[in-house]
Write a structure and sequence with these properties.
The chain is α/β, with parallel strands linked by helices. Among the domains are: 160 residues, no CATH class; 106 residues, no CATH class. Helices cover 27% and strands 22% of the residues. A 15-stranded mixed sheet has the order 1-2-3-4-5-6-8-10-13-12-11-14-15-16-17. Strands 7-9 form a two-stranded parallel sheet. Strand 1, helix 2 and strand 2 form a beta-alpha-beta unit. Helix 5 runs parallel beside helix 6 and helix 10 packs across helix 12.
């Protein structure tokens, strides 16, 4: 391999491996890779992609990457779920990543990652998956935030934990700082994990030009998330969103905020709670995530509330007070779309309320669209009573039945 490189023109080198087993062929291929990394041509290596490489081979390759690679701009390393985790040395890349533009680590712990990230001030894309506390490469929220603060060019950031082990030690959590670092280029954010870790990271940063955020909190959210509200309120584009869809599934509740008018540069905010198993905290968790005047609910014009009727059970959502609190979050909604199960929840939320109190729920509502509700059935009468109460209060609503899906 090195002889061929000596004979070829001095072009940039990309190393890409998608599958390398611990057999004679795999050992031979790993030897070729190591030969290039150890050669005088290592400064020409511009991109490295290593996926599904047997961990002994990956560890040997990582040893050959202990020195700086001045031409390296793209690095992706992944082992996949369930694979044995390799040990990446502390001195990986010489502890410096100042030339990297994209970094993807999937199930790859690097003890020196905090130092590496603090030097990665040219990163445009950063994706880190399952850096769990059980690994030596776990990053504390403060270390992660410190690394992000140095990335003035970062446009896309993804951080994924595959369990709630991302929860930081409560005793080590620090109060939010008085001043925060600005991420001026960040437009896309994806996160999966415990809400405490996310809160602790974003307490240190702001992203004023964020356009798309997808945030998944595993399990229930047992406390308010004020840093999430502050973080979103600082993003000007997210404050313009006017269309919300709330979906209740077997194990998860999801709210997605978009614009009713589509555009080339799609703007979206998606918040999900749950996702692995049923919790009776599903609705309370969604309320805690949504509850704040700083969220862009004041601009919402349309709200769709859906359910998965195959898995979803009304018995799972019986607390009328919770549903009433949920509805009262959407003070500016003019158009409401409801499915059959959600109409039953609405009935429970409004049961026994005076007409004056009914008028205070969704005060600007003008139209209700019903999906999968029989025109002459009992649920239609529920909506009829709601419409009558609104009319008596001087805030009438029009009720429409949908034939097709919405």
């Amino acid at each position: 391999m090195t002889k061929m490189l000596d004979d070829w023109p001095r072009l940039p080198i990309m190393i890409a491996v998608d599958y390398l087993k611990l057999n004679d062929d795999g050992i031979s291929q790993a030897g070729n890779i190591i030969a290039v990394l150890d050669s005088e041509h290592h400064d020409r290596v511009c991109e490295i992609k290593l996926f599904n490489v047997a961990h002994p081979l990956l560890e040997k390759i990582a040893v050959a990457m202990k020195k700086p690679f001045p031409g390296l701009t793209h690095l992706s390393i992944g082992t996949g779920v369930g694979a044995r985790v390799p040990v990446i040395p502390d001195s990986f890349l010489g502890g410096s990543a100042q030339h990297l533009r994209s970094l993807l680590l999937d199930h790859i712990p690097i003890p020196a990652l905090p130092k590496l990230l603090s030097s990665a001030n040219n990163l445009v894309t950063l994706e880190i998956s399952d850096t769990s506390q059980s690994y030596s490469g776990y990053l504390s929220p403060e270390a992660m935030a410190t690394g992000l603060a140095a990335m003035a060019r970062l446009e896309k950031f993804e951080l994924t934990f595959l369990s709630t082990r991302s929860r930081p030690d409560p005793e080590s959590r620090r109060p939010p700082p008085s001043t925060r670092s600005i991420l001026p280029a960040l437009t896309q954010l994806e996160y999966q994990g415990g809400h405490e870790y996310f809160e602790d990271v974003i307490a240190w940063v702001e992203a004023p030009f964020l356009r798309k955020a997808r945030i998944i909190f595993f399990g229930g959210v047992d406390s308010d998330v004020p840093q999430l509200h502050r973080f979103i309120s600082c993003a000007e584009e997210l404050r313009k969103l006017d269309y919300a869809t709330v979906e209740f599934w077997k194990f998860a509740a999801i709210i997605t905020l978009t614009l009713q008018t589509t555009s080339i540069n799609h703007t979206e905010l998606m918040l999900q709670v749950g996702g692995r198993q049923w919790t009776d905290e599903l609705v309370p968790s969604m309320i805690r995530v949504c509850r704040s005047s700083l969220l862009p609910f004041s601009s919402l014009d349309r709200l769709d509330v859906k359910d998965d009727s195959y898995y979803f059970s009304l018995e799972a959502l019986t607390d009328s007070a919770e549903w009433l609190e949920f509805l009262e979050l959407f003070i500016s909604v003019k158009t409401l779309y409801l499915s059959e199960v959600i109409v039953k929840c609405l009935e429970r939320a409004l049961y026994g309320l005076s007409p004056e109190r009914v008028a205070e729920v969704l005060p600007t509502l003008e139209n209700v669209f019903l999906w999968r509700v029989e025109p002459s059935g009992p649920l239609q009468r529920v909506i009829g009573r709601f419409a009558t109460a609104r009319e008596l209060s001087g805030n009438p609503v029009a009720v429409h039945n949908l034939v097709d899906d919405y």
